[in-house]
Amino acid sequence: MSHALARLRRTPFASALLIAALGASALLSACGGGGDDGPKANPSSSGNSAAYAGKWLGDCIVEGTNSYRTQLVFTATSGTTLQVATTYYDYTGTVCGGTARLSSGTGQVSIVGTKTASGVVVDKVNITMSGSTMEKDILYSDGRKMVTGDSSADSAGYPNALDNSFAFHLQ
Questions:
Q1: Whether the model pTM is above 0.85
Q2: Cα(138)–Cα(31) distance, rounded to whole angstroms?
Q3: Each residue of 3-27: b (16+ CB within 10 Å) or e?
Q4: How far apart (Å, rounded) are the C-alpha atoms in residues 160 and 21?
Q5: C-alpha–C-alpha distance, residues 161 and 107, integer Å
Q6: What is the pLDDT of residues 26-76, one digit of tens each?
Q7: pLDDT tens, residue by residue, 91-102
Q8: Three state DSSP letters for 36-92
């Protein structure tokens, strides 16, 4: 994984880059029969920072006898810029349960354009986490689910396709 958010999900948290780690994909279960439909969906992405504003939770990732997940909280500071606060939950055991060792960090995500990847319009983003260099990635949100780019890159350094093997889900 060579792209910012996608690569970060598997980097040890001691690294400044893991602050923006992503979790494994899963679908949110929908509520049935009226009533509360869960979190309000954000607008879809396409150059719009509002598509990512809110709290996103990655699913549990299991590595050996340990597990982890990451929470991202995006705050839109302009139409194309977001601040991100991250919390990394590191668990002993394979179920992301019990007492977690917590770490956190902050950074900025700038939407610098759009492109088509995996059949949808995605946002090209530059991500700078505190204490690290700028990384390039792509993001896509359908309003409830957010995915990032895979490891292949175009000539400008942005991923060519989405990595649908994991996602974050709007809380």
A1: no
A2: 30
A3: bbbbbbbeeebeebbbbbbbbebee
A4: 20
A5: 24
A6: 222 223 334 444 445 566 666 789 999 999 999 899 999 999 999 999 999
A7: 999 999 999 999
A8: CCCCCCCCCCCCCHHHCCEEEEEECEEECCEEEEEEEEEEECCCCEEEEEEEEEEEE
